[in-house]
Amino acid sequence: MLRIGRIEYANCTPLFHALNALFPENDYRYVGGVPAYLNGMLASGGIDVCPSSSITFATHSDQYLIIPDISISSSGPVLSVLLFSKTPIEDLDGAQVLLSSESATSVNLLKILLRIRYNCQCTFQITDQSTPGAMGGNEAILLIGDAALRATMSRHDMFVYDLGELWYRWTGTPFVFALWLTTREVAGRRGDELMRLARQLGHAKQYAEEHLEEIVRVSPERDWMGPELLLDYWRNNISYDLTDLHLSGLKRYFRFAAEIGLIAPVRDLAFLPLD
Ligand SMILES: C=C(O[C@@H]1C=C(C(=O)O)C=C[C@H]1O)C(=O)O
């Protein structure tokens, strides 16, 4: 039985809903959590495969395999990866910035944007705080996932920067927040099951795109986001694609990350073979 990590954010709801609706016979075991937790579970062998922070691949590119044709990404605003700041981003030089403990990719994206794009040297502190109001004496806070969506719906008087949008305006390429990753070790033992899952994810992706209105009616996020905003988010912000253009954005992100010493240079992307 494959153990699959399930990110408990609104961005994943359509895909997992579709996977279960299309293939009810699957005996997958789901393990829910935030990305940072699931990244750790995949690394320690507690799960076999999951949508993982994309930078996870880069940290051990000899150990991980990418499931082809699927991601969590955006080409422009993503709506759920947001920097809330008391000052304009270009004035953050010397400031201390709080970083969501749930993230691995977006925290490094922010570091790249601050250093390379805005020429700001900041200090960073990881936090479990999930509202912009809780940043105390710090200058800014990075929130991801549902915490970011909730924060943007509440009242505040801060500058808000959408990291998907900043990246797209800067580079002209999509940003890949999450890749579906497995390990070479699991692929050696359960290659057939992973290939079947990869095929099912392809179908689920298409089904999700075609049934968003149905899915919104039964999704738990509808209660606090409202059906219109949730549909809009799925339709116009979140994408599950992983095209060549996405991969060029991903490689550019890895190059920037290596340039400022966040990771070692990544030579090649490695994919799960599909036959
Ligand atoms: C688009 C998002 O991207 C998420 C950001 C991640 C990260 O920063 O490590 C990991 C998985 C994604 O779900 C989001 O948070 O909504």
Structural class by secondary-structure content: alpha/beta
Shape, please? globular
Residues in β-strands, percent: 15-25%
Low-confidence stretches: none
The CATH C-level name of the largest domain is: Alpha Beta
Radius of gyration: 18 Å
What CATH calls the topology of the largest domain is: D-Maltodextrin-Binding Protein, domain 2
Major beta sheet summary: 5 strands, mixed
Say which molecules are bound, naming each kind only once: ligand ISJ
Could you spell the SSE succession in H and E letters?
Answer: EHEHEHEEEHEEHEHEHHHHH
**What's the β-strand tally?**
10
Secondary structure tally, helices: 11
CATH superfamily of the largest domain: Periplasmic binding protein-like II
The percentage helix is: 40-55%
Annotated CATH architecture of the largest domain: 3-Layer(aba) Sandwich
Average pLDDT over all residues = 97
Q: Strands across the major sheet, in which order? A: 7-6-8-5-9
The structural domain count equals 2
Distance between the termini: 20 Å
EC number: 4.2.1.151
Pfam families: VitK2_biosynth
GO molecular function, one term: hydro-lyase activity
Catalytic activity: chorismate = 3-[(1-carboxyvinyl)-oxy]benzoate + H2O
